[in-house]
Structures are given as C-alpha cells and as structure tokens.
Design a protein that fits this description.
about 300 residues, 3-stranded parallel β-sheet, 3-stranded antiparallel β-sheet, 11 helices, about 20% strand, elongated
C-alpha cells in the first residue's frame, strides 16, 4: 500500500486537516505501507513557503511522519507540485495531441451569469467555446483556459467509505478546466499525474472531494494510468455545521499548541471522534495502528468543540 497526505500551504493547518492526515496515515501504517507527503503549492497566488515549513513541523510534532520525497540536506522531502510543472505540461500535451482539449475564452463573470450550478460552488460549463466559433477579437483579447472535452457516459467507482458513486460528467459537470487562463495547471490534472507517478495505491481524503473524483478517473483513463482506491471520509464541522477552515484560527494546531494542548491530546480527541477509541484520552498516533478500521468511521459530518480538548 502507498498512500499520501497532500495539503496546500495556504495557511496554518487546523483540526480538519489533521483529521484527514491522521486517518490517511493510519490507513497506510496499519497495512505496513509507505506514506508520501506532497505539498500542493501549484497556485502561486495563495501558496507560501513559510506555511510549508510550519506544516512539516506540525506534522512531526503530532507524530505523523512520512517515508519518502526528494532528499534535501539528508532529510526526506516532501514533494512539491511547484517543482513538477513540466510533468503536468507533458500530460497536457498528450491530451492536446489526441484532440481531447480545447481553448476556452469564457470569463468567470460570463460563466456566473449564464451557467447553472453543477454542485457546491461549481457551475456546469455549457460548452460555449467547444460548440461555437470564437471571434478573432475575442481570441486576441485574452489568454484562454484549456478544457477537457468530456465524453458522454457514466463514470462509476466504489469508495471504501462512501460506497458506490456514479456520475454522468457531461451532463452534471461539463467540460472542466485542465489549465487555467493564467497558465497554471488545474488541480484535477496535477493530482492525477502526481498520484500516478508516485504509484499511490490508496487515497484517503475529505468528503468534499468526492464529487471531483469522477473527473480524475476520466483523466486516469485518458492518460492510460492506474487509478488508486479511494476513501472519502466525513468532514469536521463546527457547532453550526460549517466545515472547518484555515480562517478558524482557534482550531489551528499552532493555537492549540500555544494553549498547552499536547499532541497526544489532539490525536486522542480525533481518534475518539473517529470511533477508533471508546473514550477521549491522550494517545500517540503510533498506538492507534492496531485499531484502525474504515467501518468504524462516522457516516456523517463530525461536530467538534474546542472546549472538549480541555476536558482531559
């Protein structure tokens, strides 16, 4: 088994990040597999090297180690997407040569005004630039994004936690972006190339990414790569039901550490919320490998309360 944790360095990691990191780590460690850490710093406008350094320090403090990556000064990685852009371009060129991508000159404002919603914060692309000629003046006015021409048909897979998932991409999502208009390769393409190149066999991540998985499976198929086995776990939410984010500084690892919360307390709290231990008590991540079981994980979003962390 080869698994990975692939965070974005856009802020300090919080309990929600640690939740998926811990579960992904336990899935791999319980099987005696290899754990990869990959920094998804593809977006130059949001990624910060300082957050990468802090993330690595927090991971080590929590006892969540990794096994490989570029050897830098006698220590392992992690891998960085920013250093792998040439690989994404090679894959994009392959898709273009096969006639599977096309330029799109639509602006976000135009899409927001005309395209129906395809899901949470997403809009169904109506195929404007695929089916209609683009005037020369429009082509000269802006650099295009590149979209994948999505064929008709269903993409289906069985998730180890969410079960059977089936999506008709052409009707539910439409042609999706594989390179942005600013030249940055899209997440959907980069994550497929990285997981394939790193021979990742199992991906455990948050439920919020379940809807994007069929897009990635289509890319695996088009590029002739082996797709991993997926596990999408419920998200951590606050008392009002909102997903934890990096804006909630009170639940960042740095804030909890500053208040004297130990790494064992954080790990024990998350293990308790994941139904891996019966009572909330401090525990090391390495002590949980024998009790990891996907069948035990909650079926719905998990409510967290920072005050609970002070009860041990």
């Amino acid at each position: 088994m080869r698994g990975r944790f692939a965070p974005s360095p856009t802020g300090e990691i919080h309990l929600g990040n640690v939740w998926t990191a811990l579960l992904a780590w336990l899935q791999v460690r319980s099987a005696g597999g290899t754990m990869v850490l990959r920094i998804e710093d593809l977006d130059p406008d949001r990624s910060r090297p300082a957050y990468t350094d802090k993330l690595m320090a927090d991971m080590k403090w929590l006892g969540l180690d990794w096994d490989e990556g570029p050897d830098v000064g006698g220590r392992y990685g992690p891998y960085s997407q920013n250093e792998r852009r040439d690989l994404y371009q090679v894959a994009l060129d392959r898709l273009a040569t096969a006639g599977l991508v096309y330029p799109c000159y639509c602006t976000r404002a135009e899409l927001a005004a005309s395209a129906p919603h395809a899901g949470d914060q997403e809009r169904l692309y109506p195929g404007t630039c695929r089916h209609s000629p683009v005037p020369a003046e429009r082509r000269s006015a802006r650099r295009p994004a590149l979209r994948l021409a999505v064929p008709d048909g269903e993409i289906a897979f069985t998730d180890l936690h969410a079960g059977y998932v089936c999506q008709e991409l052409a009707r539910e999502v439409g042609d999706f972006v594989v390179r942005r208009s600013d030249g940055v390769h899209a997440y959907q393409l980069a994550v497929v190339i990285d997981d394939a190149a790193m021979e990742i066999t199992h991906v455990l991540r948050g439920y919020d990414l379940l809807g994007s998985t069929p897009r990635q499976l289509l890319l695996y198929r088009m590029l002739g790569c082996q797709a991993p086995v997926f596990t999408h776990v419920p998200l951590l939410v606050d008392a009002e039901g909102y997903r934890l984010s990096k804006r909630q500084q009170a639940l960042s690892v740095a804030a909890l550490k500053a208040h004297g919360i130990t790494p064992e307390t954080i790990i024990g709290y998350l293990a308790w919320k994941a139904n891996l231990i019966d009572i909330f008590q401090p525990v090391k991540a390495s002590e949980l490998t024998g009790c990891f079981d996907i069948a035990k994980l909650p079926g719905e979003a998990v409510i967290v309360d920072s005050y609970e962390l002070w009860q041990v």
